[in-house]
Amino acid sequence: MQTAGAQAAVEAVGLVKRYGRTTAVDGLDLTVERGSVTAVLGPNGAGKTTTIEACEGYRRPDAGRLRVLGLDPYTPAGAAALRPRIGVMLQSDGVYPGVRALEMLRHLAALHAHPLDVDALAERLGLASCGRTPYRRLSGGQRQRLALALAVVGRPELVFLDEPTAGLDPQARHATWELVRELRADGVTTVLTTHFMDEAEELADDVAIIDTGRVIARGTPAELCRGGAADTLRFGGPPALDLTSLKAALPAGADVSEPSPGAYRVTGEIDPRLLATVTAWCAQHGVLPDRITTRRHTLEDVFLELTGKELRS
Amino acid sequence: MTTDSAATGNTGRTRDTGAAGDAGDTARPGTFTPRPAAAPLPRMIAAQAALETRMLLRHGEQLLLTVVIPTLLLVLFSTVEIVDTGDGARVDFLTPGVLALAVVSTAFTGQAIATGFERRYGVLKRLGASPLPRWGLLCGKTCAVLVTLALQTVLLTGTAWALDWSPHGNPLAPAALMLLGAAAFSGLGLLMAGTLRAEATLAAANLVFILLLLGGGVIVPLENFPGAVRTVLELLPVSALSTGLREVLQDGAAMPWAQAGILAVWSVLSLGAAARFFRWE
């Protein structure tokens, strides 16, 4: 999309980062196109934050190649050239406890040559009313919104948002989404991590699912949902129907089973034709389904399928 | 510079301007169009210095340490004979000691505690991703210490004059000693803040402040300690500073090179160790 700068915003190849004997990132490949919104998903401990912090220049990769806006973020020269061009929202606070909200925002603005209008930005993120409140007395949501404002105030080309909506109320969440959409419309590249699948579906052009330090799936949200396990159609009816003829009528790749007596499940690509096949079969056999539901797979289903359901540390 | 052309290339992108009206005041086209560049270095450092100074002065407990305690000690011990300060007016003995204490309170205790908590709250990490270089951050801290120290000096010498203080010597010598002392104590404070947990720094910095106040020749003359202890105490940076200041301001001596040398050694060691061991996260 960008005319200038042919290279990707982030290019990681075979990235490895170890902490002692733990390997947090284990041969990760990730490309972030300029001007896109990329969501990095993964269970706790999957290596999301380590990856992002390597891009921000905080972590020196143990192996692999990493370029951010064409620069190596860990060399002194690369980091110095990169820092003015990126915006960073960390999971930790990163703000003086005694500083006032607007004072901190003005300070970050003063470190940049062409910052955004601080008052307008504060107004837009609902920070104007608490602008004189010391940071330690801000609510969790206000702190989150201030951190977001700090990330964008310098008019960066590339923004890293580490769990930008964790702990936000729905209003603030939608305001954050609106801001990310606008960043994208204005040509800013955004990389965000999140645990909210709907957030990734809403915002992301590209999703990378990370587990145990590697990218295990990637694509647009729609591609990932298509590529995942089959969708399902369920219907209820008399128990122990003979399903042989229905199986024969279904298209290739689809199947039907009776997981519990009287509850039938059809898996496969559920489209209107398949629904018609099922209802036609019911009509032929004098079966009135007492309820028919169809369900497309969400990103969350795909995510759980790929990363398993057991709890992570 | 190169990024500007990319930015202008972007402003022409199709936008749904119809939605702009209801999305807020700043939601006009191109608000966020990238235009990244660091501010000029002097402006960044000035902004950092101003912020660091405000943070240091705004902190209530810090003011107790930097202003209230030294002033109270000066007034109390000058007007009431609690400690035998030797020959001469008590205020002439106490003022150099209290000036040395001011250096400890700001460059060491205040800076260590503030920096320790900044490290703990990720401020240092956050600013590490900003255009401000790390040495710029340290410049800001140094400026904040010097400004605070200048304000303390004005307040304490003003108070001393009100108590009939009669200083001697060339004022450049004490100024140089205090700067050396500030360097040595900044190194020690940053070493502590950059290696210990914030709570440990808080406790240790206050404890060291009290110990140096009692054993560093600030209000109790070192002559009052037994010989062996005294020899050790004289090598402490605060003792070197208070003794050096006293030699000039009380006795009218020229630059006390022995004390200046002790402070210089402490500065090199402490700043070197801080540079080596400071952890930003």
CATH class category label of the largest domain in chain A: Alpha Beta
Q: Which pair of chains forms the biggest interface, and how many residues does each contribute?
A: A-B, 49 and 51 residues
Distance between the termini of chain B: 32 Å
Quaternary structure type:
heterodimer
Using only C-alpha atoms, the radius of gyration of chain B works out to 24 Å
Helix content of chain B: over 70%
The CATH topology of the largest domain in chain A comes to: Rossmann fold
Helix content percent band of chain A: 25-40%
The coarse silhouette of chain A is: elongated
Overall mean pLDDT score of chain A?
Answer: 90
Strand/helix succession of chain B: HHHHHHHHHHH
- Could you give the order of the helices and strands of chain A? EEEHEHEHHHEHEHEEHEHEEHEH
- Total number of distinct structural domains of chain B: 1
Number of contiguous helices of chain A? 11
Report the portion of residues of chain A in β strands.
Answer: 25-35%
- Helix/strand/pairing category of chain B: mainly alpha
Structural class of chain A: alpha/beta
Record field, number of beta strands of chain B: 0
Rg of chain A, please?
24 Å
CATH superfamily of the largest domain in chain A: P-loop containing nucleotide triphosphate hydrolases
Family (chain B): Belongs to the ABC-2 integral membrane protein family.
Subcellular location (chain B): Cell membrane; Membrane
Membrane topology (chain B): Multi-pass membrane protein
InterPro entries (chain B): ABC2_TM, ABC2_TM_bact-type, ABC_2_transport, Nod_factor_ABC_transporter
What labels describe this entry?
heterodimer; A: 313 residues; Rossmann fold; Alpha-Beta Plaits; 2 domains; six-stranded mixed β-sheet; 11 helices; 33% helix; elongated; disordered N terminus; B: mainly alpha; ABC-type xenobiotic transporter activity (chain A); ATP hydrolysis activity (chain A); ABC_transporter_ATP-binding (chain A); ABC_transporter-like_CS (chain A); transport (chain A)
